[in-house]
Amino acid sequence: MFEVKMKRLIPARVETVYRAWTDPKFLVQWFEGTKHIMNIAVDGLWFWEHTSDSGKRHAHYGRYLALEPNARIATTWMSESTHGLESKLEIKLTEKDGGTELVLEHTGLPDDEQGRGHEGGWKYFMNRLAETVAKK
Question: Which residues contact 65 (CB under 8 A, 6 or more apart)?
């Protein structure tokens, strides 16, 4: 199995970063996609779809495992790139140096090209998140 682990200092308050992950209207500003459905509650389901440059639609879905306001979010994560198998995404937030330290761990990914591709995807989205919350 493959894991993505990254740490990023986000130039915003922890409350703002947590809201960026859990408020559907805020999430769509940085987490690009053609469709977002979110039931923000433990055991609530989420769905995200984006369309690649080639026009192919990519669906991602899961359920919330933990929601600790301004501290932690954990979800399952499934997609074609996980071969339909359940992986786990965990976001931990702590105040640091006037901003928020975000630790992202995506575990249980397949150790192949599709699974390893999540690393580049998460780097891209962490940059988008940092840019978006810096404007708030």
Answer: 42, 74, 75, 76, 88
Cα–Cα nearest to 73, from 93, 59, 87? 93
pTM for this structure?
A: 0.92
Q: Which listed CATH number (2.102.10.10, 3.30.930.10, 3.40.640.10, 3.30.530.20) goes with 2-33+65-134?
A: 3.30.530.20
Cβ contact 24:36 at 8 Å? yes
DSSP-derived 3-state class of residue 14: helix
**How does pLDDT run across 57-106, given as a tens digit for each residue?**
889 999 999 999 999 999 999 999 999 899 999 999 999 999 999 999 99
